[in-house]
């Protein structure tokens, strides 16, 4: 077992390619949203285990007592995500968000229960809505073994911190694939100018899906001869899933957070996703703004909640689209080749070839 380690491979932005028009935050990560924490545990054991856990904490306090408003969007619902109905019904999150593999959702949820029950001040808590997302990493991971334990989930939560986020073949992205290459964990952020509120938006993804890869419009998958429907037959390469987590410090209602989560699907589409029948495409968005948290103190206040009105949402929508798109590219660019279960291999994206294609199509400078 290893903890997540930073990849020495370039991010898309290292090539001078910056999706969209808005500037990134200083880390170009979801942790550019103040208070958001990320922790990861990577499991590589023998020739069979290639999986892990990624934890996202909206803030560093008692999440059960200091809930954050949230929204959720489902692109295609072939997934096993836990906690969906309560987010849709109540519009809030009361736990860390854990990402892992399909068959370990329940074990990650057990970690969340233990963490919540053990948190000082929660001695009377008897019901917890654990939020766990997943993708299927069974190509290189013996997923039936269910190697992720509640202890691994607790370790990921305990390691969650502000600062840079490891990307690629780490945490919940250790065994994932995207567009026929190694996928993984990726992150990005955007900052709005002061005249538009000065808010920050960050995205973190666990990429594990198929389609026809394009980078900034350049047909990378076609040029590399590796894409869905390459021979006009359904070879199953549109299958797979993605978890997208969007954070913002803008004071948003759960309704507008649902709308923000929906925009992640536009960022996903820009990369060439097919959102196939056997794909679980989920986006969660939450706000860290203290004024909109669901706390006892909030309920005791008089007067209206200062939530951003609908008419000011457009720049945030743009930020979510751009951050999600770039986070997906980073998950691919930073991933490294994984050899695992039954000797199967997930090869990393050939970046030298990708750069040649991007130069050819005028996306990158020659």
CATH names the topology as: L-amino peptidase D-ALA esterase/amidase
Rough outline: globular
Helical region count?
A: 8
Strands of the widest sheet, in order across it, are 5-4-13-12-11-10
Number of domains: 1
Q: In total, how many beta strands?
A: 15
Helix percentage = 10-25%
Described by strand count, sense and barrel closure, the largest sheet is: 6 strands, mixed
Range of strand content: 15-25%
Cα-based radius of gyration, to the nearest Å: 19 Å
What structural class do the secondary elements suggest?
alpha+beta
Kindly state the mean pLDDT as a whole number? Answer: 95
SSE topology:
Blueprint: E1 2-3, E2 37-45, E3 49-57, E4 68-77, H1 84-90, E5 92-93, E6 97-101, H2 105-118, E7 131-135, H3 150-159, E8 177-178, E9 181-182, E10 185-191, E11 200-208, H4 220-223, E12 241-248, H5 254-270, E13 280-287, H6 296-300, H7 314-333, E14 338-339, E15 345-346, H8 351-360
Parallel strand pairs: 6-7, 12-13
Antiparallel strand pairs: 1-2, 2-3, 3-6, 4-5, 4-13, 8-9, 10-11, 11-12, 14-15
What does this structure look like?
This protein has a single domain (23-293, 312-360), classed as L-amino peptidase D-ALA esterase/amidase (4-Layer Sandwich). 24% of the residues lie in helices and 22% in strands. The chain has helices at 84-90, 105-118, 150-159, 220-223, 254-270, 296-300, 314-333, 351-360; strands spanning 2-3, 37-45, 49-57, 68-77, 92-93, 97-101, 131-135, 177-178, 181-182, 185-191, 200-208, 241-248, 280-287, 338-339, 345-346. The strands form four sheets. A six-stranded mixed β-sheet has the order 5-4-13-12-11-10. A five-stranded mixed β-sheet has the order 1-2-3-6-7, covered by helices on one side. Strands 8-9 form a two-stranded antiparallel sheet. The protein is globular. The termini are far apart.
